[in-house]
Amino acid sequence: NAGVIQTPRHKVTGKGQEATLWCEPISGHSAVFWYRQTIVQGLEFLTYFRNQAPIDDSGMPKERFSAQMPNQSHSTLKIQSTQPQDSAVYLCASSLPDYAEQFFGPGTRLTVL
Amino acid sequence: GEQVEQRPPHLSVPEGDSAVIICTYTDSATAYFYWYKQEPGAGLQLLMSVFSNVDRKEEQGLTVLLNKKDKQLSLNLTAAHPGDSAVYFCAVSSNTGGADRLTFGKGTQLIIQP
């Protein structure tokens, strides 16, 4: 099993550009979570899908951030008009829907210049 | 909402000694408890998971204690070795029905001195 795959591992964007981050969950895992990690705020929940349906997006910034899960094999997190404060490591995790353990990918380090 | 405090933020112990990390949570409905390890440039590696009906769990040199009365969770690494050097995070979840968001502590930077 390859584990959770996240691409790209590193992304550098200029202020105002768009960034799309990709996550491929573990095969058979139908719950997908996105978290953001910064030195100051630590690990913060962003959003969560179960069987491709959005369940909880209470951690998502109201503007510029969106997430989708078009099929069971991948999810995307899109940040429009990126700002320097969006710089962080974005972590994706997956789990079986009826089992609480979450397994994390290596993360995407986003740097906004 | 749920809040988790983790201490200490930094911990340095000689090789072979024990290291203890403690987390305190606020929501008495918290059902699942986790410890993760993060090495530089890597994601989170799940070390142990504990359900709320368990007070103590031991696996491969790690001991997790859960004190529901005091809402406290601890991780004890016995006979630490340099490979244990990493950042450790506790995490909790309230949903008893399976997958749900995690609330994390701020992390403990553990250094094992050779």
What does this structure look like?
The complex is a heterodimer of chains A (113) and B (114). Chain A has 113 residues and is mainly β. Chain A has no helices and 11 strands. In chain A, strands 2, 4, 5, 6, 9, 10 and 11 form a 7-stranded mixed beta sheet that branches. In chain A, a hairpin with a 3-residue loop joins strand 4 (31-38) and strand 5 (42-50). By secondary structure, chain B is mostly beta strands. In chain B, the strands form 2 sheets. In chain B, strands 2, 4, 5, 9, 10 and 11 form a 6-stranded mixed beta sheet that branches. A 5-stranded antiparallel beta sheet of chain B has the order 1-3-8-7-6, with no helix packed on it. In chain B, strand 4 (32-38) and strand 5 form a beta hairpin. The radius of gyration of chain B is 14 Å and the shape is globular. Chain B starts with a strand and ends with a strand. The model of chain B has no long low-confidence stretch (mean pLDDT 93). The chains are: A mainly beta (113), B mainly beta (114). Chains A and B meet through strand 4, strand 5, strand 9 and strand 10 of A and strand 4, strand 5, strand 9 and strand 10 of B.
Q: Give the helix tally of chain A.
A: 0
Mean pLDDT of chain A, as a whole number? 94
Spans of chain A with pLDDT under 50 lasting ≥5 residues? Answer: none
Please provide the count of β strands of chain B.
11
Summarize the structure.
The complex is a heterodimer of chains A (113) and B (114). By secondary structure, chain A is an all-beta fold.
Which helices and strands, and how do they pair?
The complex is a heterodimer of chains A (113) and B (114).
Chain A (H helix, E strand, L loop, with lengths): L4 E3 L2 E4 L5 E6 L6 E8 L3 E9 L2 E4 L8 E7 L2 E6 L8 E8 L7 E2 L3 E5 L1
Parallel strand pairs in A: 2-11
Antiparallel strand pairs in A: 1-3, 3-8, 4-5, 4-9, 5-6, 7-8, 9-10, 9-11
Chain B lengths: L3 E4 L2 E5 L4 E7 L6 E7 L5 E8 L4 E4 L2 E6 L4 E6 L8 E8 L9 E2 L3 E6 L1
Parallel strand pairs in B: 2-11
Antiparallel strand pairs in B: 1-3, 3-8, 4-5, 4-9, 6-7, 7-8, 9-10, 9-11
